[in-house]
Structure formats: structure tokens, C-alpha cells
């Protein structure tokens, strides 16, 4: 899993830069026509996802996910969002680097499916990458149209 860890860190660092690049705290929460989630919502979703599936699922962190809150919370500042991203970074890194057998089964079903730790870690990485791309696109739409 040591091969995956740097990519998680890379995308989480990029996510921090994206959040910091918004012109205001309010802009992070703005919903653009045709796009169902704000970047703030996506950030909270990613933080919850990683804390749950990596921190709790693989690292036994005891994290209790509130997925409903991830999609209903509004108004968290950019500073607090970045702080939460930075809080999950060492959890992901330490957990992934501590995995000795990536071919072992992931300890729970995901979306009704079972698979290896390696398989689901790859899924989690692509999920992270996808949403970071959405945040980038959302930010660019807002900063281009608001100028």
C-alpha cells in the first residue's frame, strides 16, 4: 500500500490548494446551475469517506461517519476545511503504510461488494481524484464568471 500513499497525499494537497484558491468562504459553498454539490460539500464528503473507509475500516480509528451531515452542512470556512483535510492526511498515510497484506479482504462490504484491501484502496483513490477534479472545475467556473 506504500505505492498508493503518495497519491492520496498528492490529491489531498491539491484539494487544500483548491480550497485556498477560492475568493471567499461563501464561494466554496456556492452551487452552480447544473451542478448538484458545492465544493464545500465535496470536501466534507471526501473527509468523511477517507476517515471512514481508511481510518476506521483499515486503521480501526473508531471514526463514526455522519454521511448525512457531509451533504447537509453549510458554511464551514476555507480555513476549517483545509484544517480537516490536513487532519485526515496523516491518518490515511499511516494507515496505508501500516498495511502488511494488501491482498487481504477489505473488512466490510462497499456498495454491496466485497474485495481486497488493494482493490478498495484503488477505488478510494479514484473517488478522491474524481472529486478533486470536480472541485477544481467548480472553482474555475466561479472565478472565471465572477471576474
Topology of this protein?
Blueprint (H helix, E strand, L loop, with lengths): L4 H17 L3 H4 L10 H18 L10 H6 L5 H20 L19 H29 L2
Helix pairs in contact: 1-5, 1-6, 3-5, 3-6
* Overall average residue pLDDT: 93
Give me the CATH fold name: Four Helix Bundle (Hemerythrin (Met), subunit A)
SS content category: mainly alpha
Number of helices: 6
The topology string of helices and strands comes to HHHHHH
Q: Strand tally, please?
A: 0
Tell me the overall shape: elongated
Largest sheet, in brief, is: none
Cα radius of gyration in angstroms: 16 Å
Name of the CATH class: Mainly Alpha
Q: Low-confidence parts lasting 5 or more residues at pLDDT below 50? A: none
Q: Into which percent range does the helicity of residues fall?
A: 55-70%
Architecture, according to CATH?
Up-down Bundle
Name of the CATH homologous superfamily: dinb family like domain
Cα(first) to Cα(last) distance is 43 Å
Count of the separate structural domains = 1
